[in-house]
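Morning run. Coffee first, then this:
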Amino acid sequence: MKDKVVIVTGAGQGIGFEICRQLIAQGARVVLNDSDTSVARQAAAQLGDKCIPIAGDVADFDFIRRMVRETVSTFGRLDIAIANAGITLFGDFLSYSPESFQRVMQVNLGGSFFLAQAAALQMKEQMEGGSILFMSSVTGHQAHKDLSAYGMSKAALEMLARNLVIELSPYNITVNTVAPGATMTERTGGDTGYEKTWSALTPMGRPATTRDIADAALFLVSPQARHITGQTLIVDGGWTAVSPNP
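And here it is:
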């Protein structure tokens, strides 16, 4: 990863932040995106001078293009784009609002689709290949109550990765997806009983750590995965093999 330039969206905390941390530890230069300006700045400050924050909403196509331009202006190129930003809006299917549906699709699908597009155009111009990574979820594989829209959006990302094999392989750009299962983050750690519940349901006896997910992400965007594209790597401690719901 030495001197590779990477954009990671939704990286102010949790999985995205750990991905940034591990990238920098391996010598990459990172653009850390979060929708909250103060969160983005505080997170980047923890990671040193190889990381710059760019705050903005990935549901805004114009912002995505500006972020890619600023990345190239700062670091001279773009090698890897990791579309980690996403939102979860729980709700019963029969009463789910159009506003919630549109927001989930705009962030989870639109933000990922158009980041991949903008990044791929830059990588094509550089003529040196690159890697794009989407962040899916086990809910794209297994039904989960009150997550019909979210699960739909995550399953769609996996199909997008497969489809982009046709579009981007001629430019030596790989496109893959990581699908995390239950993971301990700042958000889930505040949910009383989360760790105990998912430890009981997960065959490996615990939910994932953010490092577990980051390690999978770094593998798929590394030279070690240069012949892997269009694939989804599920990181869930075996949960989808047995799939008991909480």
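The chain has one domain: 5-238. Good start to the day.
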